[in-house]
Design goal:
heterodimer; A: about 250 residues; two-stranded antiparallel sheet; 13 helices; about 60% helix; B: about 350 residues; 14 helices; about 0% strand; elongated
Chain lengths: ~250, ~350
Amino acid sequence: MFPREAHRAVFRTPENLEFSLVLAGPAIRFLAWLIDLLVIAAAASLASKILAALSLFSQDLAAAALTLAYFGMSVGYGIAMEWYYAGQTLGKRLLRLRVLDAQGLRLRGYQVVIRNLFRFLDMLPACYLVGGTACLLSDKCQRLGDMAAGTIVVRNPDPGKPDLEKVVAGKFNSFRNYRHLGARLRQQVGPVEAGIAFQALLRRDEVDDAERIELFRRLKEHFAAKIPFPPEATEGLPDEQYVRNVVDILFR
Amino acid sequence: MILDLERFVASEQPQWRELESILARLEAEPGATLDLRGTLRFHHLYQKTGADLAKVAGQSAAPQLRRYLESLVSRAYAEIHENRDKRVRLPVRAFFRTTFPRAFRRHLGAFWLSLIITLAGGGAGAALVRWDPDAKSVLLPFEHLLGSPKERVAREESSATGIAQRPKTYFSSYLMTNNIRVSILTLVSGFAWGLGPIVLLFYNGVVLGAVGYDYIAAGQARFLAGWLLPHGSFEIPAILIAGQAGFLLGAQLLAGSRRGGIRKRLRAAAPDAAVLVGGICAMLVWAGVIEAFFSQYHYPILPYWIKISFGCLELAALVLYLGWAGRNDGNAAASAKGIVTAAAEPARVR
């Protein structure tokens, strides 16, 4: 019932600390590239207007400057931005993506250069088909440039906390009387399941009535199978309220 | 583990914020350093946050908090465990004095392979044009090379003044960008197990061989040398070095799982490939300027002996530079090695 968690790169440090980072898939990376493409197009358009002034002196010089400027922007944009902003272009910044060393270390200049030059290969034959396919097949979502440079692209987390008040405020929770079961529930339920239940409550009005009833029925069955609460706590309790109680226990 | 999340966050958050502010400073200022006390504090906060991460790792209710702590720990890990040289600014002078020629010499075998393939292509191109002069129309990509060499030389020499007045800056910029693009493509195509550079270098050789044979057979060797040597003495080696860099990457794939696996070998080879690209770009910028502003001037404006001598001097200087530059610079050797050095104790990645 529950989808697999997104691809993650898991690192274990010499101090035996373990941390994982969510890898960015080809779709969101493509979107970031589209944003960068727009930025380059806008910059090129601006440059052409500024450099047009040079044609007052020499048309030859203006054409040369424009050729060099466009080439410099199209090849150098990614290199300069990722170098300066520690692995982020404007597109990646907007979509909260970041390029990292594949071993979790600091991104190096040569890695930025190599991964950006490989765009020539990754974008073949069109729209990053080679790179996108490599990304789909790679266990670390790497395009060829990432493989050559030893880099990965991760999604930066949003450190905000869920707004519980929106979904559980002011409601009586019959499960709270069973503290030992609540503790076991927290142990048994994983972050993905908890997140789905929370999102289901938060976005309950976005789905049809019949679909909502079915969704909460299945969620209730799932949680009830994990930790069954006694009948006196669940008697007459609608499925949605059951899930609300579970979320209250999990998140508070 | 059962955790009172609210109390946990309230008690630990000040330390996370402190770690975050240190990281923000270190990341924003590449030259920033910490004194001994600051370093000890930074390390303590890293370990503390790592321990906090371990506490929330199994908590279903804290996916966002876990991601936040993972982000902090990963950033701190990158700062603490990185032992490669932290470069504050581009070492341009050291790059040209030592880094580039040293990287070139480290992979000399790949360069000879590039040269051999280009020569083989050259031989094939010359042979094809000799046996079938009509093959020129198929082999040569430029229209002005398809006609009779004698007629072209006569035309160029008679309209020398007109050529001198033609705009050249745009032509120069076009040559630079086009050649750099081809070189990058030659390099990255090395990722196809080295097959890409073989095809591109061989084709390049075929074109050169066909043109060379055509002009020499027509008795125009002097024009050919005067035309090609001034810019070709940098342009052709640059393409060969691009092939060298491509073979360097391709060789890592061909070696399969030997010597630590493909990823580890690519990690070791990529710095030199990037250095070679930097050198290639500089060479092609020079070649573009010379081709537009010098090579296109023919007799009687520029006598052929001047152009040929200039080209030979350039080639000799390039050979001396690539062969000997930075040989005796001990400090630079350590610096150049530092670029390649991988972390001594990297994280194990699953």
